[in-house]
């Protein structure tokens, strides 16, 4: 991680956005991934924030600039500027709150309106630690992802399940697309 690849002469910077209803865990997924932190009482602050993570593929440094809506979605005010230039997206719902799963199609419509069709997208069912109050089955998540052509993963920002994996699959897919020059 983070080792220099300057001598290879190639560097990549990919913008990735995280979207989904309020309180599904977007900020905590990002803070878990970028800083290994979790906050049970996080209060969204208004304004867009992003974190940059460095990864290495084939000896090349790949930087993922991951954007969090930071509460804008509460006012249905995620702007086209938020999506602009995004090469990938994590579309998040909360497995313990069905209404957040029902919103996914609206988020996908918005995403597809504002991003390139080749953007790498992952459907994320967060809070999988809340098995006892699960409201959306694993199969429902999988089958929605399949029908929409998305990657899929259930995660827990609380206990770290699949968080790193989810982000890194998206970054890897973007990198592969770029290497194959389809973007
Ligand atoms: P956002 O509005 O989508 O950015 O959601 P936040 O990251 O602010 O999280 C909303 C609430 O859900 C907070 O109280 C978090 O502590 C909680 N939360 C986030 N991720 C998880 C998770 O994986 N498991 C559980 N049990 N709670 C979570």
TrEMBL record:
<protein>
    <submittedName>
        <fullName>Uncharacterized protein</fullName>
    </submittedName>
</protein>
<keyword id="KW-0636">Prenylation</keyword>
<dbReference type="GO" id="GO:0003924">
    <property type="term" value="F:GTPase activity"/>
</dbReference>
<comment type="similarity">
    <text>Belongs to the small GTPase superfamily. Rab family.</text>
</comment>
<dbReference type="GO" id="GO:0005525">
    <property type="term" value="F:GTP binding"/>
</dbReference>
<dbReference type="GO" id="GO:0005886">
    <property type="term" value="C:plasma membrane"/>
</dbReference>
<keyword id="KW-0342">GTP-binding</keyword>
<keyword id="KW-0449">Lipoprotein</keyword>
<keyword id="KW-0547">Nucleotide-binding</keyword>
<keyword id="KW-0472">Membrane</keyword>
